[in-house]
Amino acid sequence: SEVEAQRDSNPDLKESIEIGRDDEKEHPNRWPDKFDPEGQKFKEVMQDFFLQCKEMHRLLMSALALGMGLPETHFDEFVVQGDNTLRLLHYPPVKKSTFEKNKGQVRAGAHTDYGSVTFLFQDGRGGLQVPGPGGGWLDVKPIEGTCIVNAGDLLARWSNDLIKSTMHRVVEPPSKTEEEEKIVGEDDAEDEYPARYSIAYFCNPDFNKWIEALPGTWEKEKGGKRYEGVNSGDYLQQKLGLTY
């Protein structure tokens, strides 16, 4: 098919590990804690980070509720279970010739995320891009100590398209400036882009929740509801099914 041909010609250059709710018995996390002390420490750190991001999701949705003229606690009932996914991403070193030979090559192809919001933590390598308002792509330069927040497809649907889902991709790192060229690190091989690491925390409404257009986004002159109501878990499964 056309999709398979595209995957064969420009495969994403990345690998990842996925971490979900630790109390989900049907889909347990596969921790390396039984191997060595480092594995146990990894489990503890990731469990703590998962819960911190879950709380950050709750706080962000509270702020969003206020911004939309809703009660501050409007979304609280939707973020109780924490049906979210923590993804640790590794983009291996890539020969510069890979991009020179195949102009369509990317580290991660253009896509939107499926849930409500995504928290993205990236290193300083660069390569993340979003569409510009006038067309083309804009580099999202890493800023130390910050987190990028992307709106997802389900939030766009939930807000009746008042909030737009963020298209993004990861490509060949941007060219260095003259000043940056003067500073050559030990891992800056001339013919190779170093590895890139990032962490994505994909937030979703609890999977047992019914999602339909929010109050204030569809009534009267706003033109009505653009989408039918949908179960959060079913929606995500449908999206993942189309992808994989």
Mean pLDDT: 86
The largest β sheet comes out as: 5 strands, antiparallel
Q: Can you give the helix content as a percent range?
A: 25-40%
Radius of gyration of CA atoms, rounded to a whole number = 20 Å
Strand order of the largest sheet: 1-2-11-5-8
Number of strands: 13
Q: What pattern of helices and strands is seen along the backbone? A: HEHEEHEEEEEHEHEEEEH
Give the terminus-to-terminus CA distance.
14 Å
Low-confidence stretches: 177-184
Number of helices: 6
Helix-and-strand structural type: alpha+beta
Taken from the alpha-carbon principal axes, the silhouette is globular
Proportion of residues in extended strands: 15-25%
Please describe what this structure looks like.
It is a single chain. The protein is α+β, with helices and mostly antiparallel strands and 244 residues long. Strands 1-2-11-5-8 form a five-stranded antiparallel β-sheet. Strands 4-9-6-7 form a four-stranded antiparallel β-sheet, with no helix packed on it. The chain is globular, with a radius of gyration of 20 Å. Helix content is 28%, strand content 21%.
Task: Please give a quick description of this structure.
With 244 residues, the chain is α+β, with helices and mostly antiparallel strands.
